[in-house]
Please model this.
Amino acid sequence: MPLKKEYQWLAAEGGPKMLNEAINLIDVIETPGTANNPVIIAWAKEVGADVAAVYKSDEIPWCGLFMAVVVKRSGRQVVKDPLWALNWGTFGTHAETPMLGDVLCFVRTTPDGKKAGHVAIYVGEDAKCYHILGGNQSDKVCIVRKDKSQLYVARRPNYINQPKNVRQIILPESGELSTKEF
Model:
């Protein structure tokens, strides 16, 4: 599990299950150029349904695909049209205060000025940013910092018994600042 030094504490958390599944995928990276990483393409087949029919290239934004495979492997229900990041705003239940393992949806602007989204898992926060574990963050699965002002919604899995370690995590202002999720 290749966690960077500032996030190695996550290895001892033992959950929530979605977080564990996401950690197992750290450092999966898209293939530059016209080739595709077969691991990412296989996720589309694993999620199934319309996703496998639509997702044919790792050049297509894949944060929603990453979230779908994590959620499916965790035994939870994948949202309708999971490739659209903002659709994850319907996952689970609304969380007023983001906590460990929550799904965070962000609004972003594409290079051509259009409104789009990004989705990832909360691992902590500092005064200015959420620290999030997601896919298609600088073309790979990693943990980055994302400006809090871009948060669209936080969603918590529908737990039968919420893990005791689901809590707000305050971290130092360090780590990579997100600059590319498209």
Notes: Residues 5-156 form a domain with the endopeptidase fold (from Nostoc punctiforme) fold (CATH 3.90.1720).
